[in-house]
Amino acid sequence: MKKRLIYIAASLMAAGVAVSCHKVTVKATTELTPDVFPTDSASYITASGPAYVALRGNMAAEWFFQQTYSTDEGIMEARGGNWYDGGQNMQMHFHNWTRDNGYLNGNWYWLSTIIGTVNQQLSILGKNEPAGAAKDQNLAELRMVRALAYFYMMDNWGNVPLDTLYGDFTPRDKTPRAQVFSWLEGEIKAQIPNLSTTVSTATYGRFTQYGAYALLAKMYLNAQYYTGTQRWNDCIAACDAVISSGKFSIASSANYLKAFYPSNGPTSVGSKEEFIFAIPYDPSFTNTFPFRSQQYHARYDVPRSMGKVAAGAGYNYFNIPYTPGAPASTLPEFYANFNDANDVRNKQWLVGKQTLPDGVTPLMITTTKGGYDEINWKGDNTPYTYQLELTPDVVLRKSVAAFDAGNDEIAWNMGYRNIKFYPDASSATRDQNNDVPVFRYSDIVLMKAEAILRGGTATLGATALSLANNLRANRTTSAPWTNITLDSIYNERSREFAWEAWHRNDMIRYGKYEGKWGYKTNTDQYRRIFPIPTNAFAVNPKLTQNDGY
Question: In 3-state terms, what secondary structure has residue 212?
Fold first, then answer.
């Protein structure tokens, strides 16, 4: 059994789902009526599905882009105008985004929709679901989905409107970030007693107590940045609540990459061990919200000539039924973290000269001289065959101003490619079955190690060094570390959580977000938070813009 999609029969609860604090209206396609109203605990869980439908919306695409392309982890440059996308990718890289950036507007709308959907569900189910432990758990899980959305908003936009009452359309200005943090902390702690401690297929994709503790740990690890007050010991305590449960473990070296395969889920190796809270994806699922709700990593990450190609032009290495767009790659500054030849995490990357699956035969590409190099051989239709080689540097050789590397084979093969979310050959579309983890056990281990190293009190007989070495023993055959620094923890996090949308959060905490990488030179610290997007002002005129914008 691959997974249990808890929202597969999700029905929306009224003619519209309104986001009260941001005044965003989302059209509903179905409605709960007396004929279909839930009658037992299982059907009430199904009825709570819209929150999870909304949550999966932008997670694997626009949200990933905002978190990743604004760091040294990833870049999506244009190629002959393709993938310019109104300059939104360029703005992410150069740190010169405006409030009109498409990712910022889309993700604010996405998170607002999650919040409004949960507010509505809490209002309806809170009144109609029979009292008891099942109701308490169901409502607590919904509140945790809302808490995650508010955490993302607080992390990315700082001061944000705070409203949890469905049906109140009074415009509200932003609540200070420290107050949002305090509300979130109290809200999460209040839900923990009602959340399940069961880790199984039945609870996969839903918040358990351990997902709540993981979110608290993430908040406490960043508390000094969010509120001005360090909370290292609270972070450690939240991590210990997960560790002491004995419900999770670090995936073995043999299972690490399998945790992200298309077959991942509650019964699959790797993900079964590590995933504390994950978002299930299924290409057969039809979305009812105006979001992508698809897992498209291979579309962006796989080189064009390693997907479906014209006869003789390449080799469909991954046996996927489409030609990848292939605009995304990492930058040399980030890939420098992968400097241990014995580390299994190196295998999530495609680098250098490529071969067929036998590992020996060169993967040859047939094109023309002009198709290979449009700058030096433009218009030359002489046949040209070469071995596919992915080069480390992304060079804007056509136009820096247009963020354009060119529309030829040289350009399309720039940058090392991440295939952590391994291409899904079973899907008939570009969508993938790979579930996306939000919180993993390895993150708990490294958050605790970092909190100890920053001044927290070691517990459970573990030190920062022993925790890190415990993780590394399952990732590399190299010798254990004999000492540990904050920088070594940062580098380890870069290796462990590549392509999981946490690097921006890490860079800010480590004071590295103002650094220089690729073509980016902007060092403005106010860019640690994004501007309130244009669309938000259109529906809530009481908002005020963030400093610097």
Answer: helix
